[in-house]
Model the fold of this input.
Amino acid sequence: AVLSLAQSIPNQTEDPDNDGFTSEWEILIGTDPDDTASYPSLAEKYFTDQDMFVGYWPLFSNTTEILRGQLNGELKGSAVFQDSAVLLDGRDSYVTFGSDPELSISSNLSYSLWINNHWLERKSRVIGKYKIHDKQREHCAFIGEDNRLYVFLSSDGTPGEDSSILISSLLPVAVKDQWQNLSLAWDSASASDGLKCYLNGNEIEMGVITDGDITGLFSGSADLTLGSYDVFVPGRSEENNRENQFQDDQARQEAENREKQKKEIVRNAFQGSMANFLLCGDILTDIEMKEIALLGRDADILSYIYLDSDQDGIPDVFERIYYGDITHSAPQTAIAI
Done:
């Protein structure tokens, strides 16, 4: 069973190494409950390398990015919030976070997302920073008609054999009407060998389809989206081909306004719900992926990172860093946080 955040809060009587994590929690994740140097590391990684955390969007009732508040998303089409998640209709709805340069990750990449698929045996686009027009493919993941997971990465914006990686799960992974955690971590120095995918915290066995020897990702201008990618407006290419016919700025502006009024086409959109999206510009470990998955889709990862088991005002992570365990009371002189 997936643990909720409330179930994960440590009880001191069940924490023999005083690291803030119960023995049960450490056994589930794979750390040693009797070793003070062995403990889940997501919180410590956040405080020691905050720059790697690009964004965290709970997606419970809004698209706000809560780590820095600068990469907020937007619902498109018929997307709505329902039951503390984004509900997508499989037709014209998706979530976009725009094309801010911070979202273009050039090397090591990790992300985690909870999905609940309502329609199987069809291509369903899960996440992507990907646009065919102008060769703006960076990366994407989708569920195929065979219910397998597919992941694509490109170093030059194209699907070329020497410039991209495409892998798929050896077995179907998608199930209908059930929450699943899909996560990915890519060690760019190892090309396709460094690309690992996880389902509910457990690594998925993947097969390589295209094995380009790439060690970096293309930095393009495509929007980062959930639920679809390569969204396009009919007629755009035709309008662009006639660009040279415009004799003045007014005529060009009128054409652009007509273009904006056309309805977006969202191909192979995801039908179902999504929540708790975390994006990182470095590698999350197997244990950290397990942490996220075991917390559950409705857990507040930020609250988990700031856990304060002894309620002394100093988060557990700081007590581990400064004292080695969490049994110390808050000092009279507060530590700057």
User: Anything to note?
Assistant: The chain has eight helices and 16 strands. Residues 75 and 95 are 5 Å apart (CA to CA).
